[in-house]
Write a structure and sequence with these properties.
Helix content: 40-55%
Radius of gyration: 25 Å
Shape: globular
Largest sheet: 7 strands, mixed
Number of strands: 13
Number of helices: 15
Low-confidence stretches: 378-386
Strand content: 5-15%
Number of domains: 2
Length: 542
């Protein structure tokens, strides 16, 4: 095999990952996407005298670059530099992860099989990628089944990491089967390997379909209205008067709300400051802000109604109050304030309650490695609203509504991509989930569709109904099995209403979270430390 053929295998792998990815792909291709990379690694290992120590990294990098580029190119619509950095960096991390597998195999196992190490390392990579300053979890393998939720109903036990495990283990056994076919192994061995592959694919599918068709929802329901105002985030949202935006939202609301409606949800950042007159939304006096006052007047006409809406708010720190690491200093004062991406809960006869987005979007709402890069904060990617590092809530807040009988999780935009994070709201009692977002930054590309599909995964993992309000993306209702019951069209102002079931039971995944990721993280650390130690020992002996 020529080295050029190795590059072709890498390109093939990248294309297989791409055509297996939602929302337009078929996830069956994910079961073979690693196979070309395994051939590359095996060939380099057996011919190591013809390759440098890091050759595997350079040969697999094109596969991951193609996959990242063709599935997340839409970031360019909001920021060209951000897209380049996201694609290049994420591809680098993936290639490094695969190289660690090659390194451990070469040091500890020589020519023996060590495929299981790839499972540990890859899941460890995805797990670590969940919670650091450059977190970008969009292409975690378990997300690949988002458009085929009937396949992965067992996510309520494993979360999306179960999907990652499934993809890699099937790839490994298909690769081993191809090796046997290539070596013209005996028929019995090939039949056994083929049976294992078929079983690894079909058994999880059968289990999932059984769960799907036998799952029953709680008969207790609530009526939810979701608003999609369709305010252009580039040319309208931060230019029009706040009163005009609220007027548009309330006009849509009036089309569907009646005395039986329990909740209205409106998108992320619907309430904006009036920069034209220097007006900010200070939380200490938020009830006096005109847009909030208009919403309160509307809600007072419906005593049993709760209105959930996104806002850009700010908090001033008192003299003796501890200042957060994200606090900003006033130019003309010694005081400090924090800016937040906020969900506001408005209900008759109850004071306003706020939840501040906790999982911030890197480079948009959060400057990575703030101590190191604080001077560059003003160059943070501008996707609208307040630029720079926002403040956060340190714990998932659940809102108690309707005489405390219903508990709501308000998930803001990017937060919906994080499975274990969402389970924390459910642990705190949430029996229904609202997702408020603004997905219009990426144009009419797969971006907003993929984001919607990830909410399907959260519904299956937690067995919670989800109502989704998007400004210029897709608003939708999703049941506890992951079925999208109703959705709006992209770039169309609309309002939809649906009855959604409540649920108070906790799934295995809710109770234990990303336990698969933690286990693989520990095993990966162990294997990597042993590999590094043995590498030094071998060098010393030589």
């Amino acid at each position: 095999m020529k080295k050029f053929h190795l590059l072709l295998l890498s390109v093939l792998s990248g294309l297989l990952f791409t055509i297996g990815w939602p929302v337009n792909g078929f996830p069956g291709f994910l079961f073979v996407a690693f196979v070309p990379l395994l051939f590359i690694e095996d060939y380099v290992s057996k011919n190591k005298n013809s390759f440098s120590k890091f050759s595997v990294f350079f040969y697999v990098y094109p596969a991951f670059f193609i996959w990242n580029l063709l599935t997340t190119y839409w970031i360019v619509y909001s920021t060209g530099v951000g897209m380049i950095l996201a694609v290049a960096a994420n591809s680098f991390f993936m290639a490094i992860c695969f190289y660690f597998y090659h390194f451990t195999k070469r040091v500890l196992y020589t020519d023996k099989q060590a495929y299981f190490v790839l499972i540990f390392y890859w899941i460890c990579f995805e797990y670590l990628h969940l919670d650091w300053d450059l977190s970008w979890t969009w292409l975690h393998l378990g997300n690949g089944f988002a458009s085929y939720h009937k396949w992965i109903q067992w996510y309520e036990f494993t979360g999306a990491f179960g999907g990652t495990f499934w993809v890699i283990i099937v790839n490994i056994f298909i690769y081993k089967l191809l090796l046997k076919l290539k070596a013209l192994s005996d028929k019995k061995s090939i039949i056994i390997s083929s049976s294992i592959v078929v079983s690894l694919i079909l058994v999880p599918l059968i289990i999932s379909f059984i769960i799907y068709y036998t799952y029953d929802e709680n008969p207790k329901t609530v009526e939810v209205v979701a608003i999609q105002p369709n305010i252009d985030p580039y040319n309208e949202q931060y230019d029009i008067l706040p009163e005009e935006a609220i007027h548009r939202i309330l006009n849509l609301t009036r089309e569907e709300v009646d005395s039986l409606t329990d909740f209205v949800i409106a998108p992320e950042s619907s309430i904006q400051p009036n920069y034209n007159i220097g007006e900010r939304i200070w939380e200490s006096e938020i009830q006096y802000f005109r847009s909030i006052d208009s919403l309160e007047v509307f809600v007072n006409n419906f005593p049993d109604l709760t209105f959930v809406i996104g806002a850009s708010t700010r908090k001033i720190y008192n003299e003796n109050e501890k200042i957060s690491s994200t606090a900003r200093k006033f130019i003309d004062s010694e005081k400090y304030y924090d800016a937040y991406n906020t969900a506001v809960f408005i209900e008759t006869s109850k004071p306003l309650e706020l939840y501040h987005k906790s999982k911030l979007t890197p480079g948009v709402e959060k400057m990575p490695f703030p101590k190191l890069l604080k001077p560059l904060e003003s160059f943070a990617i501008d996707l609208g609203g307040t630029i720079g590092s926002l403040g956060i809530d340190t714990e998932p807040k659940v809102y108690n509504s309707l005489n405390d009988s219903i508990k709501i999780a308000a998930i803001i935009c990017y937060e919906s991509v994080y499975g274990e994070f969402v389970t924390e709201f459910v642990k705190n009692g949430a029996n229904i989930i609202f997702v408020i977002t603004n997905d219009g930054w990426w144009g009419n590309t797969p971006g907003h569709k993929q984001h919607l599909s990830f909410s399907v995964l959260r519904a299956v993992e937690t067995r919670r109904s989800i109502a989704r309000s998007a400004n210029t993306g897709i608003s939708a209702f999703i049941n506890q099995r992951g079925d999208v019951l109703e959705e709006t069209k992209y770039w169309v102002g609309d309002v939809i209403k649906h009855e959604l079931s409540l649920n108070s039971k906790k799934t295995v995944y809710v109770n234990y979270g990303d336990y698969i990721g933690r286990i693989c993280g520990l095993l990966s650390a162990l294997f990597l430390l042993i590999s590094i130690s043995m590498s030094f020992v071998k060098r010393k002996n030589i």
